[in-house]
Amino acid sequence: MLNLRNTMGVALLVVSLIGCKSHNKTFNVVNNTQINDDTNLLNQEFKTIVGEKVYFSFDSAKLSEEAKATLVLQADWLNSHEKVSATIEGHCDERGTQDYNVGLGLKRAESVRNALVEYGVKASRLSVISYGKSKPEDIGHTKKAHKVNRRTVTVIIKSDINK
Question: pLDDT value at position 27?
Fold first, then answer.
């Protein structure tokens, strides 16, 4: 009888410890989900209210007046959400080599980052990446497709709003 009680006691202790460990894992998943949900909501707000995209002319990283107007709005939004960071993705149309387009996409992303910094956003909150022609918005081979693929996209990547 004593042996059975000890065995049951050990089993109860193990189940309790597993339950605590499982609870902590669930709590962390909930926290990560909450952070992801917050970031997704901020991304949606940014995309809807401000505009996430800036378009470029063929073979250019120069900002148009329309692009600058969008970047002023992006900077205002980012400056009012100081705990948010963003990645600026550079994209190109299908023409040219992948290597060339990766370089051009990087120049476009850096051009946008530099403008945002000029408009008051801390550089430490902004990262850049180039996808070249590997992630087209429109897979067509038309002038329209080329036009929408020559772009940058500003994506909210991190929110520390819970801290």
Answer: 31
